[in-house]
Amino acid sequence: MFTSIGFFISVGSGVAGIVLPEAEEKVLAIKKGDAIALPFGVVTWWYNKEDTELVVLFMGDTSKSHKAGEFTDFFLTGSNGIFTGFSTEFVSRAWDLDEKVVKTLVEKQSGNGIVKLDGKFKMPEPKKEHREGMALNCEEAPLDVDIEKGGRVVVLNTKNLPLVGEVGLGADLVRLDGSAMCSPGFSCDSALQVTYIVRGSGRVQVVGVYRRVV
């Protein structure tokens, strides 16, 4: 459990299903460079329909989670899914479904976490309109900073990804050309920062309080 979470697709492409509180499911086509911000209480699933690898980076605020500092996953079905603890009769009433259908939904999936699907299984198809306001491709978005032979920066904000405001997380995608560098800077608003290297190599220097090199 977490209060907010962000996703970044670093490799590959696939499909994501997102159910916001009191809203219908949205099915999105996702690909490398996509950023998605989601508030608390969202149910998601992720599906790789290709033969190539799909890599999703999960980042979130866990200060108020079940165990501070760690993600706590709550699965709906599977070997330790939430609904496996209820009787099928109870769940069928809650979902307004036939008890036999509920039994299949709750008990058929024996796996947990990452599950290998049968090749004949059909997942929901993504809808183009579902991406609106839900995902932003940082590699295709308009540049906020563009320095010739230096680098480029895309900043996620409430204008290009509205849910960022609800989540309370922000992100910058920085691309540096050869022999370029980011000038020294610091966070003046006490925000915590996590840096993830998507591609390439280089050097970074971190200086803490009292000018001590970390």
Describe the structure.
This is 11S globulin subunit beta. It comes from Morella rubra (Chinese bayberry). Pfam families: Cupin_1. This protein has 214 residues and is mainly beta. It has a domain at 4-131: Jelly Rolls (Sandwich). It has helices at residues 88-95, 99-107, 164-167; strands spanning 4-11, 13-19, 26-31, 34-39, 43-47, 55-61, 135-137, 145-147, 151-156, 171-176. It contains three helices and ten strands; from the N terminus they run E-E-E-E-E-E-H-H-E-E-E-H-E. A hairpin with a 6-residue loop joins strand 2 (13-19) and strand 3.
Q: Briefly note the CATH topology name of the domain at 4-131.
A: Jelly Rolls
Major β-sheet, in short? 4 strands, antiparallel
Number of strands: 10
Helix-residue proportion: under 10%
Structural class: mainly beta
Number of helices: 3
